[in-house]
Amino acid sequence: MTGAAVEVEALRTLVSEAQRGNRRAADQLVRAHDGWVRSVIYGVTGRPDLVDDIAQQVWAQVWARLPSLNDPTRLKAWLYSVARNAAIDAGQARKRRAALDLDAVAEGIRDERGRSPLGAAISDEMQQVLLRAVEALPALYREPFVLRHLEDWSYAEIGALLGLPVETVETRLVRARRFLREMLDGKVEA
Amino acid sequence: MSADRDKLERLISRYLDEECDGIERRELQGLLRRDPQADALFEESRALDREVSRALRAALGRSHVRRRRLPFWTRLGRVGMVAAAACLALLLWVSPGGRQRNRTADAGGSRGSWFAPPPVWGDTLEEREDFERPQVWLDDSERQWIVVPSDAPGEYMVVEIKRVKTRTIRIQKDF
């Protein structure tokens, strides 16, 4: 049996154990996949403050729907679609709330919290500028960019998850960097 | 956008993402040596990548340590060292003296687990039949520890999770 076949068999066993309600297997699944699931959520929404809540919803949905996963080898693709859909739904819900002007109140509170001693404030301000620039990237480019920078994945790994050819991943990363350079022109010192 | 500029951006992006092969790396180095503008673009892109990575990791409560893909021979060397250590451990365990020591230790109730050293004499924990899953929270900390009991009594696996602190906000308006 090859190494890949052993891995597939181990994944099959782990998923079927989790489907039977084995707590340990479920813990193992969360530990192995929670990091990149969060990166996907952030890649789709561009909002770090939403990630925790959406990740909780995702895992709740995963446990509810896990028995319907017939092919455990498709776990990663399946998790990706659950996470992506949950992030898109949350984004739409936020837009509806913004229409009711409730988010303006939250933004105000966030601005108040940002006031801190000078040194921390400068670094915090820079971080906020960078995060706003990433948030302003089109989701098309933000998703591979976040997976590359948070998960340190190769083009092939990113392409496999997003269902894209390696060349497309590469092009999107080049364009994401170009957008960021243009948006942050002169704000980051070399 | 000129074709040269497009190619340069692509090479820089591939280099920063550790996707360049030897030929591409040499080509990029040549371009940077010859053209100061190309060099400035490279430095700007590298700084931007570093700062954005740092901001993203801080925002999502991740460590700043980047997992770098090591060269093939380094990885092979590490695998070899791990295999040698495993063989040595197996030899020690298989040897009659080693097994005798294990039996003696088991009889004394001081068996160590794969994730924890054996307890110090006189510092043993009392076993409980009805243990629950304890969770330890540290106030004002970004760390969360989950203690998971193993199948064997008295053995626990401690999982440390670093997370962004949950925020509490004051209610500004009563809706």
SSE blueprint:
The complex is a heterodimer of chains A (190) and B (175).
Chain A: H1 3-19, H2 23-45, H3 48-65, H4 75-99, H5 102-113, H6 118-136, H7 139-151, H8 155-162, H9 166-183
Chain B: H1 3-16, H2 22-34, H3 36-59, H4 72-94, H5 96-107, E1 135-137, E2 143-149, E3 156-162
**CATH architecture classification name of the largest domain in chain A:** Orthogonal Bundle
SSE run of chain A: HHHHHHHHH
Helix share bin of chain A: over 70%
How large, in whole angstroms, is the Cα Rg of chain A?
Answer: 19 Å
How would you describe the overall organization of this protein?
The complex is a heterodimer of chains A (190) and B (175). Chain A has nine helices and no strands. By secondary structure, chain A is mainly α. Chain A is globular. The model of chain A is unreliable at 108-116 (pLDDT under 50). Chain B is mainly alpha-helical and 175 residues long. In chain B, a hairpin with a 5-residue loop joins strand 1 and strand 2 (143-149). Chain B starts with a helix and ends in a 13-residue tail after the last strand. Chains A and B meet through helix 2, helix 3, helix 5, helix 6 and helix 7 of A and helix 1 and helix 3 of B.
List keywords for this structure.
heterodimer, A: 190 residues, mainly alpha, Rna Polymerase Sigma Factor, Chain: A, Arc Repressor Mutant, subunit A, 9 helices, globular, B: 175 residues, 3 strands, flat
Question: In a nutshell, what does this entry contain?
Answer:
The complex is a heterodimer of chains A (190) and B (175). Chain A has 190 residues and is an all-alpha fold. Helix content of chain A is 81%, strand content 0%.
